[in-house]
């Protein structure tokens, strides 16, 4: 079944127009107009295993619901990486262990779960199956300070809805790599070490080397001390870099989540990792709505360590130094 027919079958509405505009990871990206007049974003699994890489060179990529653009003017970053590094990472590279089965279903489950919070911060899922995800087409604009402050308040409200445990009831993915969403009601630090750091450390160890691996093992050994004051599980996006935020004149919408019950500081640390427009305004509005725990700033590198290990696995040695710097900073916290 071709994409147009698949889209019509999935939505129950004939497809009036379909335009391929790019490729990201293992997905072909389309803008479509349905016969009822709706414009939609369509993400389709690429059945060619050789295409499980970064953005395809020469693709007609434009601003869209799955934009991979770097932060706009006014972006601010904190921690180990920079906006340029984020842009480089998303432009290509091999993905050891990359898979596609279940990824779009997990993305849809995460969007539904975030929407269940009652906070209007993610687009509705119009249709989804194992090979296609359909969302509304959202026009974007440059981020404004007012929109950034609203994002801070909305993110605080999302986190405050809370969940009963860490993890999630569906298999997790980040890009096309698996995330272990094992559910636990124990402490966040142990969950983070066991189900986020340890799996990626095992895969990244040949790149990190013996000393680098041992450095991150020291972080895991001291996780109970480094994790900070106990906090209940929060409903988090889980992959909140700037490319997963769509800005309009007065608000932001979040896309492409790795959603799960986690620590609220994880989302804020990810915003800081690769730069976000008006980061200080986002964080100030968040802190005003729901004050952050004592020592949160010193814990930023700890929360950034997992996504940096993911980048080591995805893109190799170019992220080794940043991952090890984050580990060292977490230990010195």
Which terms would index this structure?
13 strands, Aminoglycoside 3'-phosphotransferase, Chain: A, domain 2, two-stranded antiparallel sheet, single chain, globular
Please characterize this protein's 3D structure.
The protein has one domain (3-332): Aminoglycoside phosphotransferase (APH), C-terminal lobe (Aminoglycoside 3'-phosphotransferase, Chain: A, domain 2, Alpha-Beta Complex), CATH 3.90.1200.10. α4 crosses α8, α7 (264-273) packs across α9 and α9 packs antiparallel against α10 (320-332). It is built from 10 helices and 13 strands. With 333 residues, the chain is of the alpha+beta class. The longest helix has 34 residues, at 188-221. Residues 51-74 and 80-96 have low confidence and may be disordered.
Biggest β-sheet: count, sense, barrel?
A: 5 strands, antiparallel
CATH architecture: Alpha-Beta Complex
Please provide the ordered H/E string of secondary-structure elements: HEEEEHHEEHEEHHEEEEHEHHH
Task: Let me know the CATH homologous superfamily.
Answer: Aminoglycoside phosphotransferase (APH), C-terminal lobe
Q: Regions with pLDDT < 50 over 5+ consecutive residues?
A: 51-74, 80-96
Distance between the termini: 54 Å
Strand arrangement in the largest pleated sheet? 1-2-3-6-5
The average pLDDT value, as a whole number, equals 88
Helix content: 40-55%
How would you describe the shape?
Answer: globular
Put simply, the count of helices is: 10
Strand content: 15-25%
Q: In the CATH scheme, what's the topology name?
A: Aminoglycoside 3'-phosphotransferase, Chain: A, domain 2
Give the structural class. alpha+beta
Number of strands: 13
């Amino acid at each position: 079944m071709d994409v147009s027919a698949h889209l019509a079958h999935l939505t129950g509405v004939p497809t009036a127009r379909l335009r391929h505009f790019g490729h990201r990871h293992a997905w072909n990206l389309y803008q479509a107009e349905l016969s009822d007049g709706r414009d939609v974003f369509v993400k389709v699994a690429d059945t060619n295993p050789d295409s499980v890489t970064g953005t395809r060179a020469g693709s007609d990529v434009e601003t869209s619901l799955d934009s991979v653009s770097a932060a706009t003017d006014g972006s601010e970053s904190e921690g180990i990486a920079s906006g340029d590094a984020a842009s480089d990472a998303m432009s290509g590279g091999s993905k050891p262990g990359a898979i596609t089965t279940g990824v779009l279903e997990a993305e849809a489950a995460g969007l539904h779960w975030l929407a269940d919070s009652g906070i209007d911060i993610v687009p509705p899922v119009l249709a989804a199956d194992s090979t296609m995800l359909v969302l509304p087409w959202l026009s974007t604009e440059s981020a404004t300070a007012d929109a950034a402050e609203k994002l801070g308040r909305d993110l605080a409200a999302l986190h405050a809805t809370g969940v009963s445990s860490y993890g999630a009831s569906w298999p997790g993915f980040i890009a096309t790599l698996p995330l272990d969403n094992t559910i636990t009601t124990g402490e966040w630090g142990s969950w983070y070490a066991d189900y986020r750091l340890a799996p990626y450390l095992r895969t990244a160890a040949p790149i990190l080397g013996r000393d680098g691996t041992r450095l991150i093992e020291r972080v895991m050994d001291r996780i109970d001390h480094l994790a900070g004051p106990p906090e209940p599980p929060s409903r988090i996006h889980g992959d909140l870099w700037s490319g997963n935020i769509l800005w309009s004149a007065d608000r932001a919408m979040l896309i492409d989540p790795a959603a799960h019950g986690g620590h609220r500081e994880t989302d804020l640390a990810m915003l800081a990792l690769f730069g976000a427009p008006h980061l200080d305004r986002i964080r100030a509005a968040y802190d005003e709505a729901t004050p952050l725990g004592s020592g949160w700033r010193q814990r930023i590198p700890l929360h950034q360590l997992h996504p940096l290990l993911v980048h080591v696995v995805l893109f190799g040695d170019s992220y080794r130094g940043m991952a090890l710097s984050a580990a060292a900073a977490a230990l010195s916290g």
